[in-house]
Amino acid sequence: MQTTVEAKETLSWRDYYELCKPRVVMLMILTSVIGMLLAVPGMVPLDILILGNIGIALCAGSAATVNHLVDRHIDQKMARTFNRPVAQGRVEPQKALIFAAITGLLGLAILLFFINQITAWLTLASLLGYAVVYTLFLKRATPQNIVIGGLAGAAPPLLGWTAVTGSIDPHGLLLVLIIFAWTPPHFWALAVHRKDEYANADIPMLPVTHGERYTKVHILLYTIVLCLVTLLPYLTGMMGWLYLLGAAVLGAGFLYWALVMLLTERETAGMDTFKYSIVYLMALFVIMLLDHYLVTPALVV
Ligand code: HEM
Ligand SMILES: CC(C)=CCC/C(C)=C/CC/C(C)=C/COP(=O)(O)OP(=O)(O)O
């Protein structure tokens, strides 16, 4: 049988893990790993692959921890977030701050000493972009909060790319643009579903300030923009037919869900679209990788 002390330790370990928003960070790391692999024709040196992603993940986890800390009073007011470690007092604010400082500094040091300066500074900018610019200011100030703040979350594939090449490549920026266009439909689909909670917490998310219909129209518009932006890797010769096929099928799926949200009264449409957005991004990046190794080299030769 587990003793009380052991049970408490297990719980506290889990709380610190939760502070890092692990599932969000894992998808970010998938995009950063793929950004690395797309940056070169062959294999990426293993030390860069491992240390680069550990550094980026630690910084993203640090930013997520600051978000838990700063938002603890908001989180207490929403059913989705009320049980979070800092909101519930299972992790004291001071301890969360120390944890964020340690993970952030460690991540930054790894990037500075083992990767390169440009990746370290871009990662720091993303950390501050999410933890300070989005969380402290934009989230409370404007319904465009997630559009602007989305830039920080969109950065990982570029961070992966610069970790390998040491410079900012237009193809890396294209990957950022894709996630940037993806973020509004990803988040607003959830926000429509959770509108009342955001209103209750006094956060000016788009469905609260402009209503559900306006938000659903904007989800559709951004989804159309996303579909167009995902054509660019093919049109620039960065990707081949396999990617084009994958992007078209996945994009059609996203458009379907955006239309279901706008045109039907289906109650689960918001959450279904949100879940689809995650599968979409994961699948799109995996298809990029398959295309990179199976199709594009043949085009280049
Ligand atoms: C500013 C930009 C973003 C906003 C506002 C946002 C918002 C959210 C919110 C509120 C959730 C929580 C859903 C819940 O608790 O059930 C969520 C979940 C998620 N987000 Fe985002 N997101 C953003 C960017 C990203 C990016 C860039 C990625 C990955 C590349 C991502 C991946 C995920 C994943 C995987 C989940 C599911 C987490 C889970 O199941 O616990 N998000 N997002
Ligand atoms: C260095 C680097 C790559 C940094 C990226 C940082 C990062 C983890 C971004 C996550 C984006 C996200 C989940 C936003 C939701 O915040 P929210 O406060 O609106 O949602 P919540 O209510 O679920 O907390």
UniProtKB/TrEMBL annotation:
TM regions (residue ranges): 24-44, 50-70, 96-115, 121-138, 145-164, 170-193, 214-235, 241-264, 276-295
PROSITE patterns registered for this protein in UniProt: UBIA (PS00943)
CDD domains xrefs: PT_UbiA_Cox10
A Pfam entry, by short name: UbiA
Membrane topology of the entry: Multi-pass membrane protein
Family listed: Belongs to the UbiA prenyltransferase family. Protoheme IX farnesyltransferase subfamily.
Note: Carbon 2 of the heme B porphyrin ring is defined according to the Fischer nomenclature.
One GO BP annotation of this record: heme O biosynthetic process
Cell compartment(s), UniProt: Cell membrane
Major localization class: membrane
Cited NCBIfam families: cyoE_ctaB (TIGR01473), PRK04375.1-2 (NF003349)
Keyword Transmembrane recorded: yes
Pathway annotation from the record: Porphyrin-containing compound metabolism; heme O biosynthesis; heme O from protoheme: step 1/1
Name of the protein in question: Protoheme IX farnesyltransferase
Catalytic activity: heme b + (2E,6E)-farnesyl diphosphate + H2O = Fe(II)-heme o + diphosphate
Keyword Transferase on entry: yes
Molecular function per GO: protoheme IX farnesyltransferase activity
GO annotations of cellular component type: plasma membrane
EC id: 2.5.1.141
InterPro entries: Protohaem_IX_farnesylTrfase, UbiA_prenyltransferase, UbiA_prenylTrfase_CS, UbiA_sf
Chain's role: Converts heme B (protoheme IX) to heme O by substitution of the vinyl group on carbon 2 of heme B porphyrin ring with a hydroxyethyl farnesyl side group.
Alphabetized UniProt keyword annotations: Cell membrane, Heme biosynthesis, Membrane, Transferase, Transmembrane, Transmembrane helix
